[in-house]
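Readers outside the structure-tokenisation community will struggle with the description of the input data as it stands. I therefore recommend that a typical entry be quoted early in the introduction. An entry of this sort, consisting of the sequence and the corresponding backbone structure tokens, reads as follows:
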Amino acid sequence: MKALSTEIRRVATPYGAMEYTLERKKVKNINLRVKESGEVYVSAPKRVPVGEIESFIISRSDNIRRAAEYYAERDMKKAQPSYENGSALMFLGRQLRLELMTDSREFIALWGMALEVHMKDTSDIQHAKELVEGWYERQCSDVFHDLIVKVHGKFLKYDVDLPQLKIRTMRSRWGSCNYTKGIITLNRRLIEAPRHCIEHVVTHEFCHFIHPNHSKDFYALLSAEFPDWKASKKELEKTVIL
């Protein structure tokens, strides 16, 4: 389909001036899309007046604003965490404030909503990162292992052996199950999510020991062992963006 013309325009909306890209195409209707970058893209037939197009945009301005905010929030969650004093970090569904504290000893303490990093030189951000990531690794090991043991109790009736736990960072998966070798691998970033969301992923992977697929039988088993899995999955996807 050949484009007839493209131009960048601005229109006044209840939320302020909004810039959009207008492309004239051989289409029947006005089509509007908010790209992941936040850019507003509109395609319309050549015969439709600009005034009608902009009235259409204004009528959708609330949806456009919410879509742009969603993508901005998602990008922020996907960004690599900062390890400077005062930075925000996620842990088990809570947002923690990173506090770098000068101390002759080196240790990390979680006090309420503050993650205190005691270290000799608080200006050494790289070392602060190493200390925090080491703390996260220990938390992953403890929390994930506890949940593996907990969920395993539900699967004893299916004669499932306690699996080996592996932890690694994955770009597109929360977990995986090697049912032939008895291994469950969990994404390190799960530690940022609420505990019940992690338990849902663990249960999901345990179900693969019974059904190594995503068949109706698999989801029937998952629903039986974790009835609220759909809500937990939705919460997980909103809390931690891969």
